[in-house]
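Entry 14. Ran structure prediction on the chain below.
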Amino acid sequence: MSSLSAPFLSPPAASSRRGWRRVTAAPITSAPAEVAVEEARLEARVEEREGYWVVKEKFREGINPQEKVKIEKEPMKLFMENGIEELSKLSMEEIDASKLTKDDVDVRLKWLGLFHRRKHQYGRFMMRLKLPNGVTTSEQTRYLASVIRKYGKDGCADVTTRQNWQIRGVVLGDVPEILKGLAGVGLTSLQSGMDNVRNPVGNPLAGIDPEEIVDTRPYNNLLSQFITGNSLGNPAFTNLPRKWNVCVIGSHDLYEHPHINDLAYMPATKNGRMGFNVLVGGFFSAKRCAEAVPLDAWVPEEDVVPLCGAVLEAYRDLGTRGNRQKCRMMWLIDELGLEGFRAEVVKRMPRQELERASPEDLVKKEWERRDYYGVHPQKQEGLSFVGVHIPVGRVQADEMDELARLAEEYGTGELRLTVEQNIIIPNIQNSRLEALVKEPLFDKFSLEPPILMKGLVACTGNQFCGQAIIETKARALKVTEEVQQRVTVSRPVRMHWTGCPNTCGQVQVADIGFMGCMARDENKKPVEGVDVFLGGRIGSDSHLGDVYKKAVPCKDLVPLVVDILVQHFGAVPREREEEEEE
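Output, structure tokens:
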């Protein structure tokens, strides 16, 4: 792994040929077909100007409002040219008086990981960090706790579905100092929102799992360094058509959810070399959800970063920038055909070469996904890790400090975040386990949560998020608690909540999903409700769930969920169970 590096790639000059080119495409749901692609369509739609990438004038007709905001002022200048210093000195009244500064606060600051909560917390921001592979330290956790503590009831933190921290309550005037503090503990929030690459996801048990295929940490660290320019900013990848997700798979459990990422690296050997087969195009959106498809490509481990750069450049150069609902990378793959898209990636590889997929896939197809809660032995003799349940991912400053203390006192000062919004404390001496599990924090953050709580995930909801239609976190806990009182379930059932169709809570991968909407009660009055999804699967036989029932009032959910659990998941009503015991 020491030979891996993160070079900055630049695409070869665009072809000057004109006319039509025929490529073999592999549509998602049908056999390969011929797709005709006009050569002019393969001209890059962006160009580099003064160190930043901008949409060419001739491709600006019909672009969406967000693209116009980017053209009006380069968002990265707020960081790379320290524009945040001047912006942070303005009052919100002064900011709102100008369209330029209002767009700075509501749109461009997302390039710095700052999201203005205009609707529900006017003048306050959510800040999203970058934590490659979900790995963080006690020192970093304490610093984040110190930031949110000063904001009182407005300050809290969430573990996200991309192994990441989001902190809440931030005020603009504090941002320059917070950014310096983040850098001081080796963290960054840069390029974590809007049309950027999101946090690289990997195996939360990387390096400690006795069953792991490959340690994903080095790859994700390199990807993050490459994408963010070592946290200094990398404008080559800050003007994508839409957001973009990447993961590296390291376990048979597929904790990383490869099928919902724009780029997923699947471990595979080829002729004795370690490397990865490649999936592309997975995504969720309000109007469409699609599973990632094989690119018919394999890269040796040293080409993980170059391939990522080539895929990003193809997407940046050729992706559409009109209707935001049709700008994710899979739409480009559909347009060019899978082979046509692959050809554009090949053009942007350092040697314009890309091997075909390897048949030597290392992920076992028949594998029961393991539970990481509680105490488990590591591959290192005499050490264990402890999986901690964080109900719907929400923590307060004092709890973060306590997690940091436990990691430091019992382990090596390291914490791991998971995509299910939980935390793992690794590297604990077995002789210290008995004392650790008795710590008071685990009265709230259980090591052995109730079976229906184990797979419970919830997005931010309308407590803080302006796009959410319903409240999610408290409601998810309440509904699950009430359901648990009515049925007994013999196996985990993953239930995900999301406040709106943007599906940050990833309801389509859940066994049972709840997507916020407005519904009508028995009196035809509008009330908060959900569309219920059923049948999502993760793992090698992954499948996105389908709508089971639309517009269910939230107050009517408990009996419906009970019925679903009994009919589809073998649950037993507690009344019947008690009768049988008698």
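Residues 5-33, 577-582 have pLDDT under 50 and may be disordered. Will compare against last week's run tomorrow.
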